[in-house]
Amino acid sequence: MNNKILSKTVFYLVVTTIVLAILIPIFFFVSSSFYSGYEMYRFPKPMFPETKFEFKIDWDTEYNMYNLMIYEQSEDAYELLISSAKPKDFRRYLKRELSIVKEDEEIEADFAPAKDGPIYLTYKKNMFYNYVTFFSITNKAEKAIVNSLMAAGWTILISLTIGSMAGYAMARYKFKGKERLSVSLLLVRMFPIVAVSIPMLVYLIKMGLNNTMIGLAVVYSVSNIALTAWITNSIFLGISVELEEASIVFGANKIQTFFKITLPLAVPGLIASSMYAFLTAWNDAITALILSGDNPTLSLVVYKALGSSGAMQLAAAGAVILFLPALIFTFIIKNYINQMWGDVKF
Amino acid sequence: MAYLELCKLTKRYQKDITAVDQLDLQINKGEFLVLLGPSGCGKTTIMRMIAGLEEVTDGDILLEGKSIKELSPKDRGVSMIFQSYAVWPHMTVYDNVAYALKLRKMSKADIKERVMKAAKLSSIVEYLERYPSQLSGGQRQRVAVARAMAIEPILFLMDEPLSNLDAKLRVAMRTDLKEVHQKLGSTTIFVTHDQSEALSLADRIVVMNMGVMEQIGTPNDIYHDCETMFVANFIGSPPTNFIDVNITKETDGLYATNEMFKFKVSESLHQGIVNYVDKKVVLGVRPENFCIKEHDERKEHNEGSFKLTIDNLEPQGSHTVIISHLLGKQIKLVSSEHFNLNIKDEIDISIGDKYFFFDKDTERRIR
Ligand SMILES: Nc1ncnc2c1ncn2[C@@H]1O[C@H](COP(=O)(O)OP(=O)(O)OP(=O)(O)O)[C@@H](O)[C@H]1O
Ligand SMILES: [Mg+2]
């Protein structure tokens, strides 16, 4: 009894740790993607992004300038942000540091009463400022999304077609060196793609495929074909030969049997493989950097944004943009696999 | 002329594994033939060769006198029910049954009619819209039967179709199968390694062993008139008892003797057994064919009777299995009378009038 409680406790502790280890970073960068620059570099960081800021503005009679102060909750005090006479300066500052988008005239009108004594006002933050900015400053973002989708699509197509044919052959036919082939497939998988990228670049340039998504997909497929062959091999092995033989006895030829019986039964495995293929292509940045630096994919754009700009929150927004399609794709597929014919054993 | 004829049918795998060896077999139209044999004796291989799933190494398969050996499976018009049912999990029951008909490019209306007919016969009409995963084992089995019936095959092949069902359902389904067979009158080859299934279903039974046919005959022949020691041992539960005896010639006839007993061989067997005088042969007696009497000290032994000690008793309700030993070998007897028997008791046994003699070397019946 006690033992049971103990093992349960340990089990849940482990599960919780794993879940937290995965969720905390995700939470962190999703939350960061909604920060303004001011929040990003404040310490301690707020757990959730602010939606609005409270300001105090007073008029410095000595220098004839407005002082813009922000309310700092942790100290219960106002902190000076910037002093200037020109609304233009405030507009720029509000936008860049606080994700608040205002026109010069608006600011001038709002600030004017401060000349008669300190005023307090609240501005709403533009929550999606980072996302909008990500697209506007990284001018290739839209193209990059299309590129990423294309690279992923080609990778799925190439690795599924070739990989599943290999998987089927390994499952159904006896041939010399079958064992060796399946082991060597695993070896290919172990090989880092980056290592083959540079020699591949030479080939791709020769074929005129550098900086194209097909060329990139070919390289991604190298390791994915092996994985697909492995997954589909076990799927095809799991499909009883009798199901195919029944089809043949009842009047189908081999090709009809493959398309009407074997392939539909292998669909869950093929979808799972396509998920891997998608993720490989979608998440990779390094190979893309080498092979398609001039025509970047989304993850490469995000990667560059992370590395170059000081604005972490922009990179976080990029990461969310990168992360969402993969998440959606995975969930749709998971549901689809679950729904298919309930709990069939075949 | 036989409907289906197997002529010296042989199958070898990888040159040295002979799964089926020179099998000659004639099957009549409308017959329900059962292939019975232990695991690995080549039953499935025979079916697969007839269906066209396996190439014939040697010999021929004739259907109404014409060889079908070279035809592709779809041109043979045979139906097969597989051991694992092999109903397709991604199709509804209706689509499963209609599959072969669609491939034959029949019209929608005709397909529907055929499917409904088959579904009615195998009582799966309520399940037509379901997927196989939503059916029980027995229902899936019926789907396999309906699918096989729908093409109105010239030959039904059933490879252990009931072996995946639980004992009770198995008995129920076998009655159903028999009924379907009677309604359709289709020629059927049925494979099983369950002898009670074979005995209850078959018009004729083929007993197979290691790729060769041991005996073919009606269930009665197979049980009461065994051709070989293998059949005598394989059919019947408990199996036939084998006892070594010497054949001796005396003035009034032939006697079978050993250290325990001696009895006179019936005249009808003389023709064959006469060649075995002063030789050892194997006496085969079915457990229920011994004459059992409770041991009575006062009475003298009848001629040919001997004493056995009961080692164990297995009451079965309708009868009791008595386990004993004779000359160092275990023997089993069946008594349907309700003697008051106890372990370690002695009983008086004599060999009745139903027994077989087998040649010790060829293991074949001496007639
Ligand atoms: N593809 C194959 N390659 C080599 N040997 C085979 C092959 N298929 C069957 N055999 C052998 O042929 C023999 C007959 O097999 P078969 O499947 O016909 O037996 P079975 O009578 O149907 O047995 P069971 O009752 O277990 O189904 C077996 O010894 C088996 O090992
Ligand atoms: Mg078999």
Give the percentage of residues in beta strands of chain B.
25-35%
Task: Considering residues with a beta carbon less than 8 A from a beta carbon on another chain, report the largest interface and each chain's count.
Answer: A-B, 22 and 27 residues
- What do the pLDDT scores of chain B average to? 88
CATH architecture of the largest domain in chain B: 3-Layer(aba) Sandwich
Quaternary arrangement of the chains shown?
heterodimer
Level-2 CATH architecture of the largest domain in chain A: Orthogonal Bundle
Instruction: Name the strands of the widest sheet of chain A in spatial order.
Output: 3-2-1-4
Class from secondary-structure proportions of chain A: alpha+beta
Summarize the helices and strands and which ones pair or pack:
The complex is a heterodimer of chains A (346) and B (367).
Chain A (H helix, E strand, L loop, with lengths): L1 H31 L4 H4 L11 E9 L4 E8 L4 E8 L2 H12 L5 H8 L7 E6 L4 H9 L3 H32 L5 H13 L2 H15 L5 H26 L2 H9 L4 H30 L2 H6 L6 H11 L3 H28 L7
Helix pairs in contact in A: 1-14, 3-4, 5-14, 6-9, 6-11, 6-13, 7-9, 8-9, 9-11, 10-11, 11-14, 13-14
Chain B lengths: L3 E10 L3 E11 L4 E5 L6 H9 L6 E6 L2 E2 L10 E4 L11 H11 L4 H14 L15 H14 L4 E5 L7 H18 L3 E5 L2 H7 L2 E6 L2 E6 L1 H6 L4 H6 L6 E10 L2 E5 L4 E3 L5 H4 L6 E6 L4 E5 L11 E10 L4 E7 L2 E7 L10 E6 L4 E3 L9
Parallel strand pairs in B: 3-8, 3-9, 6-7, 7-8
Antiparallel strand pairs in B: 1-2, 1-4, 4-5, 9-10, 11-12, 11-14, 12-13, 14-20, 15-19, 16-17, 16-19, 17-18
Helix pairs in contact in B: 2-3, 2-4, 3-4
The site of magnesium ion has 3 residues of chain B, from helix 1.
What do these coordinates show?
The complex is a heterodimer of chains A (346) and B (367). Chain A is α+β, with helices and mostly antiparallel strands. Chain A folds into three domains: 2-32; 50-127; 134-341, Orthogonal Bundle (MetI-like fold). Chain A is 68% helix and 9% strand. Chain A contains 14 helices and four strands. Chain A has helices spanning 2-32, 37-40, 87-98, 104-111, 129-137, 141-172, 178-190, 193-207, 213-238, 241-249, 254-283, 286-291, 298-308, 312-339, and strands spanning 52-60, 65-72, 77-84, 119-124. Chain A has a four-stranded antiparallel beta sheet, with helices on one face. In chain A, strand 2 and strand 3 (77-84) form a beta hairpin. With 367 residues, chain B is α+β, with helices and mostly antiparallel strands. Chain B has two domains: 4-234, P-loop containing nucleotide triphosphate hydrolases (Rossmann fold, 3-Layer(aba) Sandwich); 241-358, OB fold (Dihydrolipoamide Acetyltransferase, E2P), CATH 2.40.50.140. Helix content of chain B is 24%, strand content 33%. Chain B has nine helices and 20 strands. The longest helix of chain B has 18 residues, at 167-184. The relative contact order of chain B is 0.11. The mean pLDDT of chain B is 88. The chains are: A alpha+beta (346), B alpha+beta (367). Chains A and B meet through helix 10 and helix 11 of A and strand 6 and helix 2 of B. The complex binds adenosine-5'-triphosphate (ATP) and magnesium ion.
